[in-house]
């Protein structure tokens, strides 16, 4: 009998199997060979099924301990990730990756829990259970119902990745999610981690970058009164130092790099994309890439489809949450 496959690393070909690792992990795994993606591993849907079988239905929402064999596998994987990253203790991000998450028709943006700056195997275990439990939260189940998905067919994998302690973070759309225009990249950015942007706790900077030239064609500097930073045990919302509030979170060169990344990902994925990324020590990291859902038709295109066809997109800014 086959042994259940509980943990898969990003550099394993099996990490591209959506049924095993979910949409988010499969997408990042495919893109990691050509982009700077933080290293990590995935607790698979098989691991979720094993945990779910040990927990009474009423406990799946409040959390339930891991089976002993799975706890040991997670401990070993976390230690190995620390060795690969040269960090002890290692700070990680723990994120959900359902098999129907980050697809063209349903993104599950903001529906499942995300835990940042988690340190130590006990804290990672608690975050893992928190992600799995969130799959049956009222919010997630309501989203499933509204999207026409089976509320009983939950298969939730979880990503564990090295945390990028962002100097600045951005949410990038390769097409305007409001107007549907395709010729510009739209960027929202703030100092610190991306939580302040995707959680809506701040008015971020807004940039528009021309796809052809890479030039910033419009910018609006947000108030940026708060940002999120790593602190022991997680993250904290803190005031942005007053002298920085009126300063742009991204330079023109960083905006151009974000736009180039979004355009490259759009070409690879075959449709407009919604990207989360972060800068640390001058390096740009790809954190998430999903299809833009509920994207309006491009007003610059004629109604009759050309030989390339038309994007059947579907996202708006409200779907740009982790």
**Helical content class:** 25-40%
Q: How are the strands of the biggest sheet laid out side by side?
A: 9-8-7-6-12-13
What structural category characterises the helix and strand content?
Answer: alpha+beta
Q: What's the helix-strand series?
A: EHEHHHEEHHEEEHEEEEHHEE
What is the tally of helical segments?
9
Largest sheet: 6 strands, antiparallel
Number of beta strands: 13
Low-confidence stretches: 58-62, 102-110, 303-322
Rg measurement, Å: 20 Å
Mean pLDDT: 84
Could you please describe the fold and organization of this structure?
This protein is of the alpha+beta class and 322 residues long. The protein contains nine helices and 13 strands. It has helices at 18-31, 45-54, 59-62, 68-85, 121-134, 138-146, 195-198, 242-245, 252-269; strands at 7-9, 40-43, 91-98, 114-119, 156-162, 168-173, 184-191, 205-210, 216-220, 226-231, 234-239, 273-280, 283-291. The strands form three sheets. It has a six-stranded antiparallel beta sheet. It is globular.
